[in-house]
Amino acid sequence: MKRTFTVVIERDPESGWLIGEVVELPGCYTQAPDVQSLEVNVREAINAYLKTRDPLEPTPEFVGTWRIEVAA
Which one of 24, 41, 43, 52 is separated from 8 by 20 to 30 angstroms, measured CA to CA? Predict the structure, then answer.
């Protein structure tokens, strides 16, 4: 069975590396210097998370994202 996950990618301002967080799997994140490496690392992180999680624990459902502008 295949599942689809949502990954939010941010750039760390200090190292310049990309950080990928899997929205539906709390605490599941990884980092890499480029997008190609990040994809490999995210897939590994997802597989490790799924192998070690409690199968009875519900997973959040991704709903969407917002970009909101506010005065700084």
Answer: 52
Do 50 and 21 meet the contact criterion of CB atoms below 8 Å apart?
Answer: no
- Could you report how far apart the first and last alpha carbons of the chain are, in Å? 46
CATH code, residues 1-72: 3.30.160.250
Summarize the confidence of residues 19-24 as an average pLDDT: 96
Where do the structural domains in the chain lie, given as residue ranges? 1-72
Which tens digit of pLDDT belongs to each residue from 40-62?
Answer: 999 999 999 999 998 888 888 88
Nearest to 9 by CA among 65, 69, 55, 70: 65
